[in-house]
């Protein structure tokens, strides 16, 4: 959406057979203007080192986004993220609008 955000939330994870990580997350994302989007989703991951170090793939959706983030209500997200040993993380998110759903500019 072209907005810098602050992102804070929780991830509850468990370990499946074969050492596969499974997680459910809930995050709030806020722009500098105070616009917010509430995101929830989940995914699977794998440990890649000591501490929290892991790599993940996930999915999610937004509830009640406001202002410039409002178009996010009509998308499902696909996410890749890497968690560092200390628990910090970096992520990339893609929006999937599905068939027939309009984008922010009103196009299909």
Characterization of the model:
The protein is mostly beta strands and 108 residues long. It has one domain (5-96). It is 0% helix and 56% strand. The protein has a 6-stranded antiparallel sheet, with no helix packed on it. The protein is globular. The two termini are 17 Å apart.
Structural descriptors:
globular, six-stranded antiparallel β-sheet, 108 residues, 6 strands, 0% helix, mainly beta
Please tell me the total number of domains: 1
Give the low-confidence spans.
none
Structural class: mainly beta
Most strands sheet: 6 strands, antiparallel
Give the oligomeric state of the chains in this entry, treating copies of one chain as homo and distinct chains as hetero: single chain
Give the integer mean of the pLDDT values.
88
Rg computed from alpha carbons, rounded to a whole number of angstroms: 15 Å
Q: Number of helical segments?
A: 0
Q: What overall form do the CA principal axes indicate?
A: globular
- What's the SSE pattern? EEEEEE
Q: Percent helix among the residues? A: under 10%
Distance N to C terminus: 17 Å
Number of β-strand runs: 6
Strand arrangement within the widest β-sheet reads: 1-2-3-4-5-6
Bin the strand percentage.
over 45%
């Amino acid at each position: 959406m072209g907005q810098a955000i602050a992102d804070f939330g929780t991830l509850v994870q468990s370990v499946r057979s074969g050492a596969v990580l499974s997680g459910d997350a809930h995050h709030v994302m806020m722009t500098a203007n105070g616009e917010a989007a509430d995101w929830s989703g989940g995914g699977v991951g794998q440990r890649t080192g000591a501490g929290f170090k892991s790599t993940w793939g996930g999915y999610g959706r937004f509830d009640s986004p406001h202002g410039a983030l409002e178009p996010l209500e009509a998308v499902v997200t696909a996410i890749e993220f890497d968690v560092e040993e200390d628990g910090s993380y970096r992520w990339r998110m893609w929006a999937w609008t599905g068939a027939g759903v309009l984008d922010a500019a009103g196009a299909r």
